[in-house]
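Hey, I was hoping to borrow your eyes for a little while. No rush at all, and the record is pasted right below:
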Amino acid sequence: MSDDAGFICSRCGDHHAELPLGYSIAAPDIWEPRFETDRDSTLSSDQCVIRGQHFFIRGLIEIPVIGGEDVFSWGVWVSLSKDNFARALEVWNTEGREAEKPYFGWLSTELALYSESTTDLKTNAHTRPVGSRPFIELEPTDHPLAVEQRTGITYDRVREIAAAVLHPA
């Protein structure tokens, strides 16, 4: 059951017309605006290279919403080895790429809503069909984000996240 009626924000008290079911981060944590002029650095909506030494792809940490069919997602960046990044690029537009083995990586996005740092959590990036971002599977630890991915979150938690994202402290 989707919560299409919006929500009353716990931070500002206003009614927001829509309850977002996901947020996306524009760049990996270590990206800096000065890299825009560096010829060995590039940032697109799906891939990032920094100084020809650090390689990232953007994917989705998907979290089931309990009591409905909705899925909440975090659009995050994962660092890959040079070889795995090269392979991901090689098959980026290839039909059937979802048959690829998952790529090991490190989460390179800090989600400040969590009490523990999310940067450098171990991940597996699962390639999906062309046009779909990879599914980012977190190592099954006791980190709150990993627990949420495994067990799901309530609509109250989705509203809590929305309030925190819309009105950062």
